[in-house]
Amino acid sequence: RHCSASLCAMELHRTRLCPWKPVGIDALAFSPSGTLAVGRENGAMELWDSKTWHLRCSSPGKNGRSVVSIIWVPGSDTTPERLLSAGLHREITEWDVQTMEPIETATSGGG
Fold first, then answer.
1. Handedness of CA 105, 68, 33, 77 (dihedral sign)
2. How far apart are alpha carbons 76 and 106 in whole angstroms?
3. In angstroms, rounded to a whole number, what is the distance separating the alpha carbons of residues 86 and 28?
4. How many angstroms separate the CA atoms of 52 and 68, rounded?
5. Which residues have CB under 8 Å from 3's CB, separation 6+?
6. What gap in Å lies between CA 57 and CA 98, rounded to an integer?
7. Among 106, 27, 15, 107, which Cα is nearest to 61's?
8. Lateral strand order in the sheet of 69-73
9. pLDDT 10s digits, 20-77
10. I need a surface site. Which of 36, 49, 63, 95 has the fewest CB within 10 A?
């Protein structure tokens, strides 16, 4: 290929190393600071930066789990925002918004 200082032609090669299967979105919630939390039908949780639309962090789903409700609890000067989710698996989970690891899970008593 020939490149000039102002223009360079490039070829794009598409490679798929593993099968990709789309997963539906069941819940969305914006935090007071603008972070978008996404709950997927397979139980996965994702946090997206709404300014750049880059994925900040995610947690993979588990078989038999779902996320159908998400809520952000606003923080204060001394406490950070909190993220909670609930699903049809009868549990409410609080998430660490830096790592997307569950902090605590409690039985909701419902279904």
1. negative
2. 24
3. 12
4. 25
5. 9
6. 8
7. 27
8. 69-73, 82-86, 91-95, 102-107
9. 788 899 999 999 999 999 999 889 999 999 999 999 999 998 777 889 999 999 989 8
10. 63
| Cα–Cα nearest to 44, from 55, 60, 56, 25 | 60
Give the 3-state secondary structure of 41-70.
Answer: CCCCEEEEECCCCEEEEEECCCCCCCCCEE
Position 111 scores a pLDDT of 53
Are 105 and 93 contacting, i.e. CB atoms less than 8 angstroms apart?
yes
Dig out the tokens for 45 from the structure. Answer: 């949780």
Read off the pTM: 0.77
